Amino acid sequence: MDTFKADLFTSLPPYGSSSLSSYDRVLRTIINTPPTVIQPTQRKIFLNEILRRLEDRTFDSNSTLLALQAVKTLGRNPTGSELLADKSVLGTVLSYTALPLNTFTSVSQPTDQTQEKAPMSSPSDGFGNPTSTEALRILANGLLLHESARDALSSLGGGHVGPSLVTVLGWGSEDTRSLPTNSKKLSSLPTPDTIFIITRILFLLTVKQSSLITTLVTELELPHILAHRIRITPPASSSPLDPLPELLKLTFNILMHYPRSSVSAISMDDDGGFISEVVDESAQIRAGAIGHLWDTALDCLAEPLINLLLSLPLPSQASPIPPPSSVSQTLNCLLTLPTTPLSSTWLLSSSELGVRGDNRPGSSSVAGTNQVDTARALLGLAERMTAPWNDTTERTWPSVQIVEATLSVLFLLMARLCAGLEVVRLHTEQYLFPLDLDRAENSTLLQERSTLLGRLLRLMTSPKYSQTKIAIGEIFFAVSNKNPDTMSALIGYGNAAGFLLSKGFTANAPVSSSKSNSLDNAPRSNSRLNPVTGLAPTGGPTFDTSMTEEEKEREAERLFVLFERIKKNPAVSMGVPNGEDKEEGEKGRRKTVDPVRQAVESGRWQEMDESTEEAIRRLDLEDQRDEQEAEKELATLKARRNF
Q: Which of 44, 246, 433, 570 is in Cβ range 3.0-4.6 Å of 199 for a Cys bridge?
């Protein structure tokens, strides 16, 4: 194909009945040629010649479809296809989409000649036919490969491109109340492929914050349209053009960027939320998740997203990483929802949401309620998606990039729900730390077990996954009511130390778990737990240091006897007594410290009760008698020697 030059097209005679087959033959050759075969300079010439004829409406309907397919093929390579980012070229392609650009009056009218060239077509002009679909595909590819094309397309048609796409997306939606009436004159419902392309274009147009997002939300009620589309779109599809992931990506953009365009002077408070000055006073704006702003206009998206989470099929046990795109996108959207303002929606049962029963792990309810269906769904995902960590060695673990992009989002969502919803926290605690959890010292360490708890601890203590380990730590921290001692008691200080240090808790490991507030009434609360491993010893010395009063007295007596013996030892008691002159210590005698005196002066010894003091006095009297007897024996010995 080195000889495939643009002059094959430019040398053709004027288009007509006699040359029609020649044009079609060259166009088919372009369509069947890989994009990398044609040189960039030749690609640019091909595009220029074909687009010029499309602009002049030279081709008949069959040749027009072939020409658009050729432009789509040439535009798949970003090098040499920069022409597709030009506003005039976008206007030419837009003229073949048959979008209902004349159905809006709220957006400003065209202001330049390029915009005037875009047609003001009605829905009956052929939207949804193959020609229209190919033109939309060209726009989608151009927006994906050339960022500058996004702003250019947004301004075409008097700024009506985005709203017209929303019109088509919302046609037939019962939740749509503000769409133009003639937008419902379309001859047929949009097909899944058309919805995929339209949503992809809208996603690319809303990647960055802009006034277009405000228009789509406030004037066209895009959240209601998206909520309806998410409800009626099957959660699992084998089609490569499955519209659900694209709908979720567009939803994520809206949740991320709206209502930021309605506020100014944004600042963050101590809790990580935003304090903002509302410009649009009619908007009910409040703090959302992860520091984002939240508007009540977005509330309608919460229920279908949670419903989708409960309806999505779990990833395959054999290949849990990465999960299906729809699962990842659903988690991303849910992560932007606030917990407390939408607590009633988060705690809806699957029956209230219209979800069929499932067999996810952790199906037992807490306190006889079905409010934990969302927590059950997340725990089920965690069970499947952490399956590779059943192997305690790292050779079978997925790559860092995949794990950080998928698991961290799931675990952050679980942590947020545990921190914001007490019912979810209790259910998660009971699932991870059941009442019959084996904490015997001779049992397997918590982090080496095949349960979800063991897999989470292996991920948390692995140095490979920096974001994921923090997210898992947040789960345990939230389950522990943000109490570091409780967290250490649950998983062992050895597992919790790194995370607690990153949170600013630098205290030493707790002596025992007896002070754990959340474990006071649970059978698993054991004052003999090893604070480092979280296990309880089965025999031998324990970590319980409590003593009876009699044991304390006997221990005190034993210690004082030992100290007195040390004091009498000439090798130890060579120190200079307190109050003696410094010079006496400088005559060659090495200074030492009286351990008894040092203990008393340092405050390590507390006041003794009367029985202990009496024992000390008795010992002192015995020492005095011993000294007197020793002096008598010494005097007797001297007298015999002098005799």
A: 246
